[in-house]
Amino acid sequence: MSWGRAFVALARRDLTIAFRRRSEMANPLLFFVMVVTLFPLGVGPEPKLLANMAPGVVWVAALLAALLSLDGIFRPDFEDGTLEQLVLSAHPVPLLVLAKVCAHWLITGLPLLLVAPLLALFLGLPEGAMGALMASLLLGTPVLSLVGAIGVALTVGLRKGGMILSLLVLPLYVPVLIFGASAVDAASMSLPIAAQMYILGAFLALAASLTPVATAAALKISLS
Amino acid sequence: MNLAGEGLECTRDDRVLFTGLDFSVDSGGALLVEGRNGTGKTTLLRMICGIRRPDAGELRYDGECIFSLGSDYHTHMAYVGHMDGIKRELTAEENLRVADALGRPGRMSIAAALERVRLAGFEDVQANKFSAGQRRRLALARLLVSKAELWVLDEPFTSLDRHGVKLVEELMAEHIAEGGMLAVTSHHDVDLGAADVLRLDLSA
C-alpha cells in the first residue's frame, strides 16, 4: 500500500534527521528537568508541600517542554522548501501530517515520559502514583503534539511566531492538564483514576482523528 | 492531457499583477513564463501547482478544476521551486527515497536518476556538503524518480554551471518528447528543441 509506504518513509526521515542532530533533541528534556528543579528552590524544601504539588508541577513542566519543542514539527521543513513538497505530494496531506506528528512525539514526547518518574521521585510523589503519572503522560503528551501541530501550521509562515504560538496553543492544553494532573493526584491518594484515563483516552482518539485534517488545512493557508 | 488557465487574475496588496490570463498546454507542450522581476511569474507557477488560489479565473487539468482534484492532480505534477526542498541532514539517496515514496513511483531508479544528473558517487554524501549547484541537480533528480506528466519548474537554472544548464535543457526536452508537459520560468533563454512552446510574457 503506497499510503503506508509514504507514512513510514516520512516518519523514518524525521527520525533520521533527529538522530543526526542529537544535541537539539536533548534541549526540551533539559528544560523539563530544570523547570521541575526550580520548584523546590522557589517554594522551599518542605517534603509534604512538594509531594502535594508534584502531580501539577510535573505535568505543567511536561506541557511547557512540549510547547517549546513544537516549532520543530514544521518550521525546518518550511524553511528548506520540503513542506511545499509534502503539500504537493500524491498522498493525502493529513496522513503525512500524522506521520510527522508521530515522529515528533517519539523524538520529544517519549523522552519526557521516560524522565518523568525520576523527577516525580525527586519531588516525593508517592510510589503508588507512578503508574498513573506514566499512563496519564502516555495518553496526554501525544494530544499535546497533535493539537500543537495545528498552531505550528498556522504560525509557520510568520517570522516570529513563537509567542503567538504559545498564546494559541496553551488554552487548548488546559483540558489535558486538568485531567492529567487530576489522575496523578487521585492516584497519590489511592483513589480510582479510571474516569480521568477514559477522558484522556477520548481526547487522544479525538485529536488523532481530527487534528491532522485541521493541520493540513492550516498548512495550505500558511503556504499560499 | 491538457492544462488550461482561464481568465487568471492575481492581486497583491491591491496591486493587480496580472489579469485575464489565458493559456492552454497539451501533451508534448511547454509553457514558458517570461517577464521582469515582480511581474508574478512565481505566483503564476504556484497557482499552477495548486499552492495558491487565483483571485479570479480557473485552472483546469483535463477539464477539471485542479483545486477540486486535490491530491489526484498532484499525482500528475512535480514541482521544483525557488527552494530546493532538499533535507541537508540526509544523504542524496535518502532524499530521493523520500521523494520516491511521496510521489507516484516508477519512472527511474534512484541510482539511475543520480547518474543522470551526474551525482553518481555522491549517494552517501549528506546534502549539507553539496554546493548550491549540486543541491539544485539533486532537486531536479526528484523529477526523475517519480512519474509525473506535468513538471512545474521555477527558475530551474539558478546556480547551475554551463553543463548543468545544458543537462536541464536535455531533461526538459526528453520529458516533452515523451509526451510530458512543462511550465517553466526563466531569465535565461530556454532551448527546448522542436517542442511546442507557448510563451507568456507577464510584463507586457
3D architecture notes:
- The complex is a heterodimer of chains A (224) and B (204).
- Chain A has 224 residues and is an all-alpha fold.
- Chain A contains 9 helices and no strands.
- Chain A has helices at 2-20, 22-43, 47-69, 75-80, 82-87, 93-123, 130-155, 162-188, 194-223.
- Chain A is elongated and about 55 Å long.
- The mean pLDDT of chain A is 92.
- Chain B has 204 residues and is an alpha/beta fold.
- In chain B, the strands form 2 sheets. Chain B has a 5-stranded parallel beta sheet, with helices on both faces.
- In chain B, strand 4 and strand 5 form a beta hairpin.
- In chain B, helix 5 packs across helix 6 (132-145).
- The longest helix of chain B is centred in the C-terminal third of the chain and has 16 residues, at 162-177.
- Chain B is globular and about 50 Å long.
- The mean pLDDT of chain B is 88.
- Classes of the chains: A mainly alpha (224), B alpha/beta (204).
Gist?
With 224 residues, chain A is mainly alpha-helical.
